[in-house]
Amino acid sequence: KQRQSGVRNPLSTVHPLPPTGAAGDCTVSVSQPSQLTVDYTQEAVTLQCSFSTAGCPSEPPTSLWFRYGAQQPENLCSDGCRSEADKFVVREALAQNQVSLTVNRVAFNDSAIYICGIAFPSSREPRAKRTGGGTTLVVREVKLLSKELQSLLTALLTLLSIYVTGVLVIFIVLSKSKSDTLRNKETEDSQKKKSARRIFQEIAQELYNKRHVETSQQPEKDNTYENRRALSNYERP
């Protein structure tokens, strides 16, 4: 009927007033470290979250933490997590635009993606509620080394590689030198053997020649003796 008469309800054009302290264009930005790796022996680990606001209400924002692991997503610290004895402890420094989540008694199943959220509940702007990209927490079974110890191990490995390379070079040089020495010694021994064999052959040849000469002269002496003896008997009366 109102459409037919062309009369509009004046209440339909009235928008509700924003809550006290709210701004008309509230924008929140949240940033987190992308990854954090710890070893299983660490007592606790703290995940940092920083945020910035523009055009938001003057009231302090609300911080939220979520965890996405192997199981279903978890809403962490819905009760505030203010006790140091809790598994999770939330600390807020809203004046510095910083919040943090501490995970106590670190275990292997604490490996997950931890997401920080900042919200101004009094603002209806979609950008008044934002979450970070999430921090991937990795809990390793092997204890991580400090940067100083890693640098020391790197230096030791470098020195060890240089030492091994030097030993190999020396070994190759000594092996080559020994091989050359053995080759020279074998050559000298071979020459000595050849020289000794030649001398032996010469001695044997000389003995053979001498014996051959003696053998060839012996019958001639015998024939001369027999001829002399026969001549002597012939001349005897």
UniProtKB/TrEMBL annotation:
Residues 210-237 are annotated as: Disordered. It comes from the Eukaryota. Pfam families: V-set. The chain crosses the membrane at residues 152-174. The keyword Coiled coil does not apply. SUPFAM superfamilies: Immunoglobulin (SSF48726). InterPro entries: Ig-like_dom, Ig-like_dom_sf, Ig-like_fold, Ig_sub, Ig_V-set, IGSF6. Residues 10-116 form the Ig-like domain. Keywords: Membrane, Transmembrane, Transmembrane helix. This is Ig-like domain-containing protein. It comes from Diceros bicornis minor (South-central black rhinoceros).
